[in-house]
């Protein structure tokens, strides 16, 4: 059976707070997803349930047709690397690496050794003796070397410097290219990783605000400058995320309607620039609902 993770109408409360409301999404085989949203949007809560660590109050989660909660076969298909506390502090790196093949049938020892060397992680050190960045690098090593059909990284690089993060993106992409699998990456460093994503889910206040392919987003989100009349003629073509006028230079941030895409062009007096994923996310999760692109 081909791999697929599906979430259907999932709701969840924690300590009587509704954290997720009727969330539906699906993660297809061999696609890299970004799961984005502001602090407290519900990303970790959703990922915990997808990885079978907790149960929804309502709705269903299926990993290739099975409920992953307490289901050994599903658990072996999923590697979930969290922001911290992935490993017992008293264990050495050597002991952790040794036990991984029991959890992940696709575990690749050669890749693990290569990454431990790259991140300069000494086998003899215990997790409690690692710096924050080293502990994150260990999580990343395990996540990549697991080659699990569903690999989830939830803010995995706390404490890692820019150089080490670059290594992570490169290694993840290289290994994915040779051994494709489904990857979900939740992060706040959006522009750093946006080249990795093929599709993104944006979450806002416990709901999915938008799901798009990166290709589609790039064709739909623009910042456009030009004279007043030309700019105003574009309003009906999309959702106006922002507009401003600075000393006669009018600008418009537009998310083009799906049905306007085929014939969307701008007047010759205007200039358009692509909107980065980070910029789009700011508009999308804006608390001012009248501007927010919250397609419900
Ligand atoms: N154990 C808990 N008890 C009560 N509320 C909780 C608990 N854990 C999380 N929450 C609440 O659930 C909401 C969603 O939290 P969650 O950690 O899923 O968000 P997130 O999108 O991952 O945030 P961040 O980007 O900051 O990691 C938040 O409002 C948070 O306060």
From TrEMBL:
* Residue ranges of every copy of the ABC transporter domain listed in the record: 5-230
Keywords of the record = ATP-binding, Nucleotide-binding
What the entry lists under SUPFAM superfamilies is as follows:
P-loop containing nucleoside triphosphate hydrolases
Q: Mind telling me which SMART domains this protein's record contains? A: AAA (SM00382)
Q: Which InterPro entries match?
A: AAA+_ATPase, ABC_transporter-like_ATP-bd, P-loop_NTPase
Question: Which GO molecular function annotation, any one, does this entry have?
Answer: ATP hydrolysis activity
Top-level division of the source organism's lineage: Bacteria
Q: Which Pfam family, just one, is annotated for this protein?
A: ABC_tran
Q: Which positions are tagged coiled coil?
A: none
Q: What is this protein called?
A: ABC transporter ATP-binding protein
- Biological source species: Alkalicoccobacillus porphyridii
Q: What is the lineage of its organism?
A: Bacteria, Bacillati, Bacillota, Bacilli, Bacillales
């Amino acid at each position: 059976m081909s791999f697929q993770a599906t979430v259907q109408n999932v709701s969840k409360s924690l300590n009587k707070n509704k954290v997720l409301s009727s969330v539906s999404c699906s993660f297809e085989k061999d696609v890299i997803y970004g799961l984005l949203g502001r602090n407290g949007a519900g990303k970790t809560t959703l990922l915990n349930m997808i990885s079978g660590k907790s149960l929804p109050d309502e709705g269903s989660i299926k990993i290739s047709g099975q409920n992953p909660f307490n289901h050994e076969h599903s658990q072996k298909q999923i590697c979930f690397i969290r922001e911290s506390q992935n490993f017992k502090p008293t264990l050495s790196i050597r002991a952790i690496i040794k036990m991984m093949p029991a959890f992940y049938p696709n575990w690749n020892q050669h890749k693990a050794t290569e990454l431990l060397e790259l991140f300069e992680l000494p086998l003899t050190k215990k997790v409690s003796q690692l710096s924050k960045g080293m502990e994150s690098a260990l999580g990343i090593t395990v996540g990549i070397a697991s080659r699990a059909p569903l690999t989830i990284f939830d803010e995995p690089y706390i404490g890692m410097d820019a150089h080490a993060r670059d290594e992570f993106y490169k290694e993840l992409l290289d290994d994915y290219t040779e051994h494709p699998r489904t990857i979900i990456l939740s992060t706040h460093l959006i522009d750093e990783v946006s080249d990795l994503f093929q599709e993104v889910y944006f979450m806002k206040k416990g709901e999915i605000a938008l799901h798009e392919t990166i290709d589609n987003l790039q064709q739909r989100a623009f910042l456009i400058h030009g004279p007043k009349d030309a700019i105003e003629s574009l309003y009906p073509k999309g959702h106006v995320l922002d507009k401003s006028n600075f000393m006669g230079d009018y600008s418009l941030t537009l998310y083009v309607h799906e049905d306007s895409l085929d014939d969307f062009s701008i007047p010759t007096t205007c200039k358009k620039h692509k909107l980065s994923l980070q910029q789009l996310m700011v508009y999308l999760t804006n608390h001012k609902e009248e501007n927010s692109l919250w397609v419900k």
